[in-house]
């Protein structure tokens, strides 16, 4: 018998036992849907994190003070004199309050040096960045991050008006559109001089950001910066430093490793449910072989070879599993779509996910279908015909 | 030499039941020629089922030789034995044994499809065969919508469709009322008149009497081989 005829037999049988076939498929449906949905979660999450990290620049080094008096502006100047450093800015930040006439909320007050906006290039929603005149000693200008602006209900006509930071008057010059960013929301930006006056912590800075000319130079620059700072504070190479140096590129790589591990873990869990689904199929196929022993005997008597019987049962298992895989794929993609809407990441149907889902369900059908099919094919015709 | 379709020479068939050897056939010689209508008769335990299995190429002898349409079944692989069975034997079973979830015509097509014949040709032959047996208007009925007699005629059509050397009928009237059973026997007689070889396995002497030749089995041996109208 030709393979198409055998496939038709299998479909016929599956259709004849619809409810049972549906229940049998369920394990694979759930397994595949779980794999598809979980893969998309991991994808979406790493997409978001990487985007956030990338906006900060991959050739940056963040040197963060461990205590309020760990790093100074002199350290920053020394670092700026190193080779291959293209841009440098310092930040001094602290918790504070921001207020309009109507309301008052907590925010992170961040003092930045004049190169900050040029280096980070945040999107601007209203007004402008802090300008060079903002950095003139007497000026008290402020730029709001998106969350801070939302919290206080900042509108366009409030640009140029006065807001209070820790009770002192500042002039609002701009609002950033940094919602998609990472760690910049809920913040307001003032000049570093203004910040020091607000927190009275001259000459200390909370972080220094240096940027290598090219991403390749970042690792060398990291070592040079560490050596320089240890020298300035007389720290041996074994001593715990008073600062930490974070490399954006290695952070992205670390995030990549974490999401890959997470993905593997989630896929592993989903694979277990697929395994359970496969066992379900095998179980039903074994029951089916037993129930249809007489039929197998009759088929053998009227000329079916062992290979015909094997193919018939194997195709049945594969069709069950593959159909489960297709349904699971569709449900999984629907789930992934809603997760993407919720998590605010880009939804896409990935070809490799589709192939993986279908490939896996095909594999499950073959692996768990072979044994029952062999049992069926190996039945002796006379025993099968006699079977009650 | 006449055209022998079945030749059994000193055929023994022993089964191992638990750790005991049971002899089902204890050295049987039997020749059936093309065009004969033979009833193999005996009570249960006489060895007639074993004989049916051997003639039907479902089983091989423990010793002795079985030739079906000139081919020895003794040393055939499962595949070759299946091929021989498919070519030489048409089965008619007691419980009809129509395939589940299939229509009349699909049942009759099945042996042809297993022979590797294309769907279209198989459909044509099956339609022809069912029409000949008066089931031309029941082609697409599944077995639940066919009476017992109709089901048995579908089964007979399935047995005949490959033009086998032997039609092997195992208690073909066993599941039918006497009137329908008589009609099935009439059909077998008619097939015999058309020149087909019929081997009828039965325990029923009355049914056996409709065959021109009757082979009586007892305790695994041929007790009597009668010819002529009884």
Structure in words:
The complex is a heterodimer of chains A (388) and B (230). Chain A is α+β, with helices and mostly antiparallel strands. Chain A has two domains: 184 residues, no CATH class; 175 residues, no CATH class. Helix content of chain A is 57%, strand content 18%. Chain A contains twelve helices and twelve strands. Chain A is elongated and about 105 Å long. The two termini of chain A are 27 Å apart. About 1% of the residues of chain A have low confidence. Chain B has one domain: 3-Layer(aba) Sandwich (Rossmann fold), CATH 3.40.50.300. In chain B, strands 6-7-8-3-9-10 form a six-stranded mixed sheet, with helices on both faces. Classes of the chains: A alpha+beta (388), B alpha/beta (230). At the A-B interface, helix 1, helix 9, helix 10 and helix 12 of A face helix 2 and helix 3 of B.
Topology at a glance:
The complex is a heterodimer of chains A (about 400) and B (about 230).
Chain A: H1 3-16, H2 18-55, E1 60-65, E2 71-72, H3 73-80, E3 85-99, E4 104-112, H4 116-120, E5 124-127, E6 141-144, H5 146-152, E7 162-165, E8 168-176, E9 187-191, H6 192-199, E10 204-205, E11 207-212, H7 218-233, E12 243-247, H8 248-291, H9 293-301, H10 306-343, H11 351-378, H12 381-386
Chain B: E1 4-17, E2 20-33, E3 37-41, H1 48-55, E4 63-68, E5 71-72, H2 78-88, E6 89-92, H3 104-114, H4 119-132, H5 148-160, E7 166-170, H6 178-193, E8 197-202, H7 205-208, E9 213-218, E10 221-227
Parallel strand pairs in B: 3-8, 3-9, 6-7, 7-8
Antiparallel strand pairs in B: 1-2, 1-4, 4-5, 9-10
Radius of gyration of chain B using CA atoms only: 17 Å
- The share of residues in extended strands of chain A comes to 15-25%
Helix content of chain B: 25-40%
State the total count of DSSP E strands of chain A: 12
CATH architecture of chain B: 3-Layer(aba) Sandwich
- N- to C-terminal distance of chain A: 27 Å
Number of helices of chain B: 7
What structural class results from the helix and strand content of chain A?
Answer: alpha+beta
Give a quick account of the main beta sheet of chain B: strands, pairing sense, barrel closure: 6 strands, mixed
Strand order of the biggest β-sheet of chain A: 3-4-9-6-8-7
What is the overall pLDDT average of chain B?
92
